[in-house]
């Protein structure tokens, strides 16, 4: 019990340095940082957990690194939580700015790039993002169940790093037109 009390006292010290922890102290710090991190993400909005863009992934890495310092004691817990709160606040602010301004959104999150337009591959875009023909064909199969670029209206390399695919709509074909006893029948094949 004495170790637990010392651990709680040490948590509150503003200039605590690294030291060896008992199992109970480390577990208590981990639980405290977990609860504080959870609260910060709930307050700041937990959108980054979906890791939509590089913008979101960077927060995940930096926030994880910052919070780990609070668990292992390489930084005082209060300072660690303050830094984590600042990171979540900045992320929230940048997300709001990018929502309000398309220009800032493009700067912070990037822009989608067209890889296939009207069935034709854009080799310069593929080269720029180092997407091989095999990678592109895989994306067509996985996301649109298509075999070749000629079947694609548009494919884009999205801001989150995924490839989205819009298949060409097949042209409807008129197979048969009949008029019998004042009733017109049209048979059309679609795809």
Describe the protein.
The protein is of the alpha+beta class and 191 residues long. The chain has two domains: 2-106, no CATH class; 112-191, CRO Repressor (2-Layer Sandwich), CATH 3.30.240.20. The protein is 53% helix and 17% strand. It has seven helices and six strands, in the order αααααββααββββ. It has helices spanning 2-12, 23-44, 54-72, 77-100, 102-109, 123-128, 133-144, and strands at 113-117, 120-121, 152-157, 163-167, 173-180, 183-189. Helix 2 (23-44) packs parallel to helix 4 (77-100), helix 3 packs antiparallel against helix 4 and helix 4 packs across helix 5. The mean pLDDT is 82.
Attribute tags:
4-stranded antiparallel β-sheet; CRO Repressor; 53% helix; alpha+beta; 2 domains; 7 helices; two-stranded antiparallel sheet; 191 residues
Structural class per helix/strand content?
Answer: alpha+beta
Tally the helices: what do you get? Answer: 7
The residue fraction in helices comes out at 40-55%
Q: Mean pLDDT across all residues, rounded? A: 82
Shape: elongated
Structural domains: how many:
2
For the termini, the CA-CA separation is: 74 Å
The strand count comes to 6
- How much strand content do the residues show? 15-25%
SSE run:
HHHHHEEHHEEEE
Spatial strand sequence of the major β-sheet: 2-1-3-4
- Low-confidence segments: none
> Rg from C-alpha positions?
27 Å
């Amino acid at each position: 019990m004495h170790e637990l009390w010392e651990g709680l006292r040490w948590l509150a010290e503003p200039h605590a340095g690294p030291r060896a922890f008992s199992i109970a102290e480390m577990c208590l710090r981990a639980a405290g940082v977990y609860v504080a991190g959870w609260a910060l993400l709930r307050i700041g909005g937990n959108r980054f957990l979906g890791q939509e863009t590089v913008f979101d992934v960077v927060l995940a890495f930096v926030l994880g690194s910052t919070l780990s310092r609070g668990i292992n004691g390489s930084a005082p817990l209060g300072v660690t939580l303050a830094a984590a709160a600042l990171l979540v606040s900045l992320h929230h602010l940048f997300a709001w700015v990018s929502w309000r301004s398309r220009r800032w959104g493009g700067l912070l999150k990037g822009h989608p790039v067209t890889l296939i337009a009207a069935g034709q591959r854009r080799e310069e875009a593929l080269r720029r993002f180092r997407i091989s023909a095999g990678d592109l064909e895989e994306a067509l199969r996985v996301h649109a169940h298509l075999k070749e670029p000629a079947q694609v209206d548009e494919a884009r390399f999205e801001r989150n790093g995924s490839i989205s695919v819009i298949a060409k709509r097949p042209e409807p074909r008129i197979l048969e037109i009949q008029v019998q006893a004042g009733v017109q029948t049209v048979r059309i094949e679609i795809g």
